[in-house]
Design a protein that fits this description.
alpha/beta; 5-stranded parallel β-sheet; 4-stranded antiparallel β-sheet; disordered N terminus
């Protein structure tokens, strides 16, 4: 890693949550070598307590944690706290990935991956969740929909709608360019600062689905978030 990369990592706190102590220490060492401050925990309740006391910059989470229901409750609570999460699971079946994404995971990774790949995924998630936000004073208004970029709040017909951090980022990005069509690959690159090489396009699909449930009066017939078949999505002003 370059000195510049180490400078960016310095001070960023990573929590590795896994009941496999040997594996968690191996991952922690790989992250520490890149300049991250790392804490390891093996219990679901302890993870939530630690995050509520002092939210880390990112959590690497094994869903098979003791104390709470297979880690899903931990994932949901971390999402409520706005903490980015990479699920690091022994099983990476499609159904599990979908559940993880629905609960707010920023990435979903099999334990078969190498520590080197995990470090790269951590770096990518931190880049997109901590990068400077452009045009932070924007307040985008489209009829009954208001996206307040500075406050990171969304209102529909005067009612505030709760969104997870990545859902907000996706909505704000699309709303800044009404009428422009973006492919899933472009959205991965622009919103997630990632690519199909690292992250499935299912991530985009699932976040659009959740956004529609949150802001559309009829998610099956969306007013704002339009699917362009075979291409991607556009925001309709």
């Amino acid at each position: 890693m370059t000195r510049q990369g180490q400078d960016r990592s310095a001070g960023q706190r990573i929590l590795v949550a896994d009941p496999d102590v040997v594996l968690s220490q191996r991952l922690a060492q790989a992250l520490r070598e890149q300049g991250y401050a790392v804490e390891t925990l093996s219990d679901g309740r302890a993870v939530i307590d630690a995050a509520e006391r002092a939210p880390p910059d990112l959590v690497v989470l094994e869903i098979a944690l003791p104390t709470l229901a297979v880690g899903w409750e931990v994932l949901a609570r971390l999402g409520d706290l706005g903490v980015p999460v990479i699920v690091h699971a022994g099983q990476a079946e499609e159904a599990d990935r979908i559940v993880g994404l629905e609960l707010g995971a920023d990435d979903y990774l099999s334990k078969r991956c190498s520590p080197r790949e995990l470090v790269a995924r951590v770096r990518a998630v931190l880049r997109r969740t901590h990068r400077p936000r452009e045009m932070a004073s924007e307040r985008l208004t489209y009829g009954g929909l208001v996206v307040d970029v500075r406050a990171r709040k969304v209102f529909v017909d005067g009612r505030e709608v709760a969104l997870r951090p990545r859902e907000f980022d996706l909505l704000a990005f699309l709303a800044r360019s009404p009428g422009q069509v973006f492919s899933r690959a472009q959205l991965l690159e622009q919103v997630w600062v990632s690519s199909g090489e690292w992250q499935s396009s299912e991530t985009v699909t699932e976040h659009v689905r959740r956004l529609r449930l949150a802001i559309e009066a009829d998610p099956a017939r969306p007013r704002w978030l339009i699917t362009v078949r075979g291409v991607g999505y556009r925001f309709e002003a």
